Amino acid sequence: MSPTSLSVVSDAVRVRVPAKVNLHLGVGPLRADGYHDLVTVFQALSIYDDVSVAPATTLSVSVTRDSGRGSGSRDVSDIPVDNTNLAARAAIALGEYVGREPAVSIDIVKRIPVAGGMAGGSADAAATLVALAALWKLDVDRAELVELAAGLGSDVPFSLRGGTALGTGRGERLVPVLARGDLHWVLALARDGLSTPAVYHELDRLRDNGSHDVPEGDVDPETAHPDALISALASGDANAVASHLHNDLQRAALSLQPTLRRTLRAGVDAGALAGIVSGSGPTCAFLCADDVSAVNVAAELSGAGVARAVRTASGPVPGARVTDE
Ligand SMILES: C[C@](O)(CO)[C@H](O)COP(=O)(O)OP(=O)(O)OC[C@H]1O[C@@H](n2ccc(N)nc2=O)[C@H](O)[C@@H]1O
Ligand SMILES: Nc1ncnc2c1ncn2[C@@H]1O[C@H](COP(=O)(O)OP(=O)(O)OP(=O)(O)O)[C@@H](O)[C@H]1O
Hints:
Layout: H1 3-11, E1 13-30, E2 36-55, E3 60-65, H2 86-98, E4 104-110, H3 120-135, H4 142-152, H5 156-161, E5 164-168, E6 173-176, E7 183-189, H6 196-209, H7 227-235, H8 238-243, E8 246-247, H9 250-256, H10 260-269, E9 274-277, E10 284-288, H11 291-304, E11 309-315, E12 321-322
Parallel strand pairs: 1-8, 3-4
Antiparallel strand pairs: 1-2, 1-12, 2-4, 2-5, 5-6, 7-10, 7-11, 9-10
Helix pairs in contact: 2-3, 2-4, 3-4, 6-9
The structure holds 4-diphosphocytidyl-2-C-methyl-D-erythritol (CDM) and adenosine-5'-triphosphate.
Pfam families: GHMP_kinases_C (PF08544), GHMP_kinases_N (PF00288)
Organism: Gordonia jacobaea
Family: Belongs to the GHMP kinase family. IspE subfamily.
């Protein structure tokens, strides 16, 4: 390797950033600004995108599908590589904030399912903020990065933070939640993605067609607080956590992709404690009693032919972090 290419390698900063699942997702009515108030409990899971940034003459983005085992991405060709990519938007926003040209190359290795309800794009935006803060040796504190993150998307602040957290507002206002021990998950990845706005829109449509503002089984975020789930997380009892998993967006995701009902049933039949649609879907997340059970459930689900791919993961894990792995 020439000294020049060595210096290019050493100039790059790589950040590893996790996927998320919502253990509780209470969705309020549509607000005037097009968003919904949420009460949500996020958990970061051990499926990661890697985002590398390096100095360049102009801003560019590349996205590669990790071809190794553990890859969650079916195809990355749907992901834009222009300035609409959330990672590019993060670089532009941070550049504007600190008065710097975002002349960097951003290379994303994708493992988080695309349009899967696991905050893949948000993860890349959060990773880019952390990577550029390190590359440019910025004197910005965490609160400033969180503020920029919230401007990029509702899930981006959680991708920065990771762990387990209670989210309110659009989902961007976070407080940490104590979770004892690790939870073991199986993820069933769907063949087609779901658009987040389309799923929220479908929930509004279903609610408009129903007789109640907040239909039976849904949680009113104005009044409901996921206390029982938070106590279960503190106790580290996976059975108790499983019985308090809840997602108001689930029926909208099922309405748009009815085959997910079969996937949810198959996971529980395979021995999971409970199954839930992850965020806006269509990924289904199954909570298992322990790591051995997760491997067994994953094997059985793979054989059932109800998913494009099946992965195991554990949580909580930290948010976007510089790595040299
Ligand atoms: C479904 C979740 O993943 C749960 O954590 C998030 O609420 C989605 O967060 P996100 O992908 O970061 O979403 P954003 O980029 O902020 O918003 C995309 C679109 O989703 C809808 N949206 C999002 C968040 C929210 N609290 N209410 C909404 O109605 C809006 O139509 C919005 O235009
Ligand atoms: N870096 C990125 N990674 C993935 N998708 C991106 C990225 N930048 C922009 N997008 C666009 O965003 C769309 C949603 O992709 P993403 O993987 O973030 O969905 P998601 O995980 O369901 O989102 P969330 O869970 O935050 O609602 C994609 O179809 C793609 O066109």
